[in-house]
């Protein structure tokens, strides 16, 4: 009878352990699915943004072609009305050309910064750049034809000069905004880490009364890193314990050949989502 009871208890314990193991595996798989979903959503958003920019560029070329046709028709006419139409359409063409240049530069930046890489996108960008160069040559030829027909474009040149000045000012503002965005992006992807013995951490007020990172800790004692690049931290110790709060599924603590621990961040976005500070206690 005692043997039967012992066997039954053993089976119950084995079933419970198997259930816990299965739950842990399911949780790990769910984290992987969530991570893949976020990556796919990011790529979809990047592709959508680039397609929107390409559509704007194509629409710009269409508008330029229509304006060129209006100029071609007007330059064969006579009188102040035709001259005015030419001035208006040439001003529009110059403005739209500048806008297309900026959109092509924007697309180039989007492609450079995107996680989506492909020869087709690069070929599309090269094709749009060639179209822009060809259109520049066509506009130069059109201006030469207008000058040959003694079309009065002095006022147009002044307007274009003013437009270029405005565009230059706009480009300066755009550059400043880009620098601000770049700085903000750098800040968003910056984190700090420190590892040390209990004595060292206490001396820098990083660890006080069992609490981590109270308001008066020594920030200069930390090392600054880029979370997009720095994903492995060597701790040079055979004993390591993470004191700050980070999801356990986002990192591993493994020993190297010398039995010294290395912290590997497997999911940077998840790891740093709870805190941009990492504190590790070593011995």
Topology:
Elements: H1 2-75, H2 80-113, H3 119-148, H4 154-188, E1 190-196, H5 198-203, E2 207-208, E3 211-212, E4 223-226, E5 232-234, E6 240-242, E7 251-255, E8 261-265, H6 268-271, E9 277-282
Parallel strand pairs: 1-9
Antiparallel strand pairs: 1-4, 2-3, 5-8, 6-9, 7-8
Helix pairs in contact: 1-2, 1-3, 2-3, 2-4
Question: Can you describe what's shown?
Answer:
There is one protein chain. This protein folds into two domains: 155 residues, Methane Monooxygenase Hydroxylase, Chain G, domain 1; 94 residues, no CATH class. By secondary structure, the chain is an alpha+beta fold. Helices cover 65% and strands 13% of the residues. Helix 1 packs parallel to helix 3. The protein has a four-stranded mixed β-sheet. Strand 7 and strand 8 form a beta hairpin. The protein contains six helices and nine strands.
TL;DR of this structure?
Helix content is 65%, strand content 13%. The chain is α+β, with helices and mostly antiparallel strands and 283 residues long. It has two domains: 32-186, Methane Monooxygenase Hydroxylase, Chain G, domain 1 (Up-down Bundle); 189-282, no CATH class.
């Amino acid at each position: 009878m005692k043997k039967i009871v012992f066997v039954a208890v053993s089976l119950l314990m084995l079933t419970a352990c198997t259930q816990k193991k299965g739950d842990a595996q399911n949780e790990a798989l769910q984290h992987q699915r969530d991570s893949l979903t976020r990556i796919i959503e990011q790529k979809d958003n990047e592709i959508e943004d680039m397609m929107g920019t390409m559509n704007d560029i194509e629409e710009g070329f269409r508008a330029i072609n229509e304006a060129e046709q209006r100029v071609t028709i007007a330059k064969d006419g006579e009188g102040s009305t035709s001259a005015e139409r030419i001035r208006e359409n040439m001003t529009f063409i110059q403005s739209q050309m500048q806008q297309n240049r900026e959109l092509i530069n924007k697309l180039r930046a989007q492609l450079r910064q995107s996680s989506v890489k492909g020869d087709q996108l690069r070929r599309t960008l090269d094709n749009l750049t060639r179209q822009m160069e060809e259109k520049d040559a066509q506009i130069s030829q059109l201006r030469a034809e207008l000058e040959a027909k003694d079309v009065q474009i002095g006022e147009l040149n002044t307007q274009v000069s003013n437009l270029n000045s405005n565009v230059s000012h706009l480009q300066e503002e755009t550059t400043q905004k880009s620098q601000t965005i770049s700085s903000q992006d750098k800040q968003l992807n910056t984190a700090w880490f420190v590892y040390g013995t209990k004595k060292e951490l206490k001396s820098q007020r990083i660890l006080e009364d069992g609490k981590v990172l109270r308001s008066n800790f020594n920030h200069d004692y930390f090392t600054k890193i880029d979370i997009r690049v720095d994903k492995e931290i060597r701790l040079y110790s055979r004993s390591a314990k993470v004191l700050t709060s980070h999801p356990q599924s986002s990192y591993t603590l493994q020993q190297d050949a010398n039995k010294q621990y290395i912290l590997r961040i497997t999911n940077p976005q998840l790891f740093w989502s709870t805190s941009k500070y990492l504190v590790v206690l070593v011995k």
